Amino acid sequence: MTIDLNSWEITWKFYLCNHSNQIEMKNTLFNAGLAIVFSTALISCNSKGTATNASSNDSLSANNSAIKEIVYVNSDSLLHNYEYFKDVTASFESKTKAAQADLTAKGTAFQREVAEYQGAAGNMSAEQRAATEERLARKQEELGRLNQNASTSLGQQEAEENEKLYNKISEYLKKFSAEKGYKLVLTYSTANPTVLYADKSLEVTKEVVDGLNAEYKKEKK
After folding, report:
1. 195, 72 in Cβ contact below 8 A?
2. Which regions in the chain score pLDDT beneath 50?
3. Which of the 8 DSSP states describes residue 45?
């Protein structure tokens, strides 16, 4: 039985690089989730309106009223200033780096064992070589499982945090829209420009961030 150390090193380095990229891509993933939140029409529970006569003036008034019921949020600014997102990001980065450090340490120890075996193999009997290679092969398989388990665990945690973020913002926007009489909340993001242009008077980012942070502050107590 032969231990393919070179192949193992390539696989391991690819895994570590992939998870480093995961940290860098995290903001993009969360931004994508936010695009779904904001792009969804958030219909206010308090429908406002009065009976009007069919006239051009009433039509114009209705159109102006409808415009006031549409607002947008800059999701880049929201994420940058939302304390919950900052805490989640820091926590996830810490977990990812800890997993990387643990896997790297185990991988380095395994490489050392393989190198020691390769250096001593010439002085070992055929039976000793077979037993050592079998043990190292089992250890290599175990490291592969640890690799996969770590990847799966981090992926699940990231999905769970995305869902929590989605729920927090979605639930808050429903209340916020009901209180303000908004019918539609759109989003603007440099990475996801679903809105090409919007007048600054329609932006409610600061109000939303302040409200979200106020709720999060209460939750942390």
Report:
1. yes
2. 1-3, 5-17, 19-29, 32-33, 35-36, 39-54, 56-57, 60, 62
3. S
Asked whether residue 115 is domain-assigned, the answer is yes
User: Could you read off the pLDDT of 16-48 as tens digits, one per residue?
Assistant: 445 444 444 444 445 544 544 554 434 333 444
pTM here is: 0.70
Integer-rounded Cα Rg, in Å, for the chain is 27
Does residue 54 belong to any structural domain of this protein? no
Q: Which residues of 63-76 are buried (b: 16+ CB within 10 A; e: fewer)?
A: eeeeeeeebbbbbb
Q: Which two tokens stand for residue 32?
A: 């994508």
User: Which H or E element spans position 71?
Assistant: strand 70-74
Closest Cα to residue 12, out of 109, 184, 144, 114?
Answer: 144
pLDDT at site 212? 97
Q: Which residues have CB under 8 Å from 204's CB, separation 6+?
A: 71, 72, 73, 176, 180, 182, 185
Quick check: 34 and 72 in contact, CB under 8 A?
no
Q: What is residue 217's DSSP assignment? A: H
Structure tokens at 136: 């190292």
Pairwise CA distance, residues 108 & 113, whole Å: 9
Number of structural domains the chain divides into: 1
- The answer to the question of residue 27 being in a domain is yes
